[in-house]
Amino acid sequence: MIGLVIRVLPFWVREPLLVAVGVPFSGLLFYAGIRDHEWIGVALGAAVAVFTAIRVHTINQALKVRRQVKAIEEMTNAPGVKRIEGI
Q: What is the DSSP letter of 49?
């Protein structure tokens, strides 16, 4: 069911949601691993933290591309510049 929800949600909803869940979950795993002296909890916390960091990087890259596309569109919509559709 979680897989279905993740696939159905759009990018700008799914990715921040994964980050918002991943950060506290990794902290909880770190805390439980240190409290119980279990390395597996710490390892899982590190894995979730790395997964979350990759998601943050993905969001930053998407925002950067989005800003660049917007800047290019503004430059091409300048007065005196004709835009030929279909090319």
A: H
Q: What is the largest CA-CA distance in the chain?
A: 69
Instruction: Report how far residue 58's alpha carbon sits from residue 48's, in angstroms, rounded to the nearest whole number.
Output: 15
What is 34-48 written as a DSSP string? HHHT-HHHHHHHHHH
Crossing angle of helices 11-36 and 39-76, rounded to 10°: 160
Residues of the chain with pLDDT below 50 are none
Residue 40 confidence (pLDDT):
93
> On the CB side of 2, how many CA atoms lie within 13 Å of its CA?
3
pTM, two decimal places: 0.73
